[in-house]
User: Fold these one by one.
Assistant:
Number 1:
Amino acid sequence: MSTNNADLDRLQSAVANTLHEHWRLFLAEGIVLFVLGVLAIVVPPIATIAVAVLIGWLLLMSGIVGLIATFRARGAPGFGWSLASAVIGIVAGIVLLAWPLSGAFSLTLILTVFLVLEGVVSILYGLEHKRELSGRWGMMLFSGIVDLVLAGIIFAGLPGTAAWAIGLLVGINLVFGGSALISMALHARNIAPAAKT
């Protein structure tokens, strides 16, 4: 058991040393993410188009790679299905790149369905915790209600909300992610380097 504790101590020391040595890099990354997040929140339609274009490129590239792999392994079982999958990826990528706002509409519908499902699950999870007398149920219930309200706002405003919903949510995510990295970097700056073992 003492060997495990010594290994854990060495691992924690190595992580602390690495964080301390590279805190400026984490700080810079956090600041960049925070600034990008603020920009996405200020101009969500541009962020929405950027997300749609990024996903378009990812689908196009994955479709091309899939097409090459399919033809290289044309003797393998499922050639037709693999070919269809690659072509669908290429077509979807081209559509998103050519008409990013149409793609943003589809992505917004998917986001709305996700928020509804996440909200229902969070509410049920919170109610289950309430039944077991857990102290965390209130925040879970609140989180689920917020998800459902967001889904309702986005769905009620369609197609107009498709222009800003994804960009706004990505921006909020970037702001919180950047803030977390900045906080971690500033804390890591003050960590005294552990003795090398």
Number 2:
Amino acid sequence: MYTLKAGIMIDEACKAGKFISNGRVILYPTDTIWGIGCDATNPDAVQKIYEIKHRSDRKTMLVLMDGPIMLSRYLDIVPEAALEIIDSAAKPTTIIYPGARNLAQNLVAEDGSVGIRITSDPFCRYLIQGAGKPIVSTSANISGKPSPSLFSEIEPQILKLIDYVVNWRQEEASPTNPSTIIKLDEHGKVTVIRP
């Protein structure tokens, strides 16, 4: 039974990964809440998400990656403190780093920073590997409205604008929570933004 479920999960991740690779936007279950995603290096796909959410591109979105090796490709420097936080985090943790590079410019804040979460969720890891790129992860809601922790809470108008809706974990009934958010400066100083 577990093997069948794992096979379905991997198939869905590969299918959604192809949409991402082709510049499309997907709706998917993240390691926290339901999210909208795309190739984090594709500014046109990123712009489409801002439009779907009616969100100003001055409010940046976070990026999911599958490990420290990928992280090093998209930051000028990976602070030692970041690796310690990632290793010891008891729940999903987003870190805002200085010195973003090789990402869509409309994902990067004016000060050059970007929020990145290393995911341990199996589906998200397969999805990132299938896409071959880091992926955007932003809540599946119109900006300013509540974030959906369950698939059933996603507004129909969002569903209509998505290129592919992932068929995985849609039936889950246990609400999930957003990630912890921590900011690191270039000296490794830690500021907790959301516990």
Number 3:
Amino acid sequence: MHIGTARTALFNWLYARHTGGKFLLRIEDTDRERSTPEAVEVIFEGLKWLGLEADAEPVFQFPRAERHRQAVEEMLARGSAYRDYMTPEELEAEREVARAEGRVVRSPWRDASPNDAPDRPFVVRLKAPIEGETIVEDQVKGQVQFQNRNLDDLILLRTDGTPTYNLAVVVDDHDMGVTHVIRGDDHLNNAARQTLIYQGLGWEVPVWAHLPLIHGPDGAKLSKRHGAQAVSEFDAMGYLPEAMRNYLVKLGWGHGDDEIFSDDQAIAWFDIKDVVSAPARLDWDKLNHLNNHYIRQADPARLAQLVVGVHKSRDRKVLEAQLPVLQRTIPLVRDGAKTLLELADATVFVLRERPLELPEKQRGLLNEETRARLSRLRERLADEAAWEVPTLEGLIRGFAEAEGVGIGKFGPALRAALSGGSPAPDLAGALVALGKDESLARLDDALSYAA
């Protein structure tokens, strides 16, 4: 599920919520080789992760093939479609002539009598108008005109009777009661062809809205070299779904100078007519800024569970008893975390097992003078009953003053003893995260180790 597909789904979801409509999901699975159960599950999982729940059970397109064929029979009866008996060789010859004359392919069977039909395979084609123009009134692009002479008689049914994409989506949209089709602008040309199918069936044409593509930071079409593309990749990279929703809706739409807003605000403000027609650019800095905001706002218990998932993906075991420690640590370290991966990095120090193996650089900090000073500090810490950040900050400052030195004289060694060289918050934060018993035990281990 590509990030562009995710944004399209989000815009559909927002517009449905904004207008009191329904957000519908259809799995277009007529390509049986590509539409595997695994591929379909990726769509479901991507929408679930983004928090975009459809308002009805998903519709699968392939089982509706008979209904699609019924619609074609209706078009044949109305004269808006015809059976084309051209052989592959005849079709190729017609293509060459059409290319030479600068026109689209027109079958000689277009106006032939059905009585002249030979006994051989055929396709069914749309009998598109040759003169005039087809107009697509697009909510994003404005009025788009297509000259009918440039629109070919597209195939509706193949020789084996299977429906083509353009036919199937028209029939399904009509039967599902779809009033607004919001999709990527790579489908804009299809809108002209589908308009002709609607007209050929005598059905009302829906409202079209074709969204611009998402480009990379350099303005080029999004590709693998720009980084993550699939929704699952953003999940794996540690982005929160609420941050992705906030970010994606800003790709091509905005509400004044507002950068951060809730789902309810987005629903109240969003209108498809306000989407800009220019391509949007993926901006990693803005996404990281938003993700950091939502990490800082999220419930620590929820973040703890998510961080456990990151640690498990890295083969780091997290015991059930360590969950409260994680939950206590997260508010102390999350301000600087742009992703859940960085948040997980910042919590490694509380999960390490004693005794900590100190790297050589950290061992070098524990000289005789520093060990003696840390031993005195340990006594002060052991006597402190209020194990809170403000209290411990004051204790550490007071200890430094009493020792007649700056905190830099013992702070790095204290941090090494507490974290073992892993990233950790400020000294008071690290002490609170570990808890009193664990902090004193790690200090004891380091002092014993250094001796």
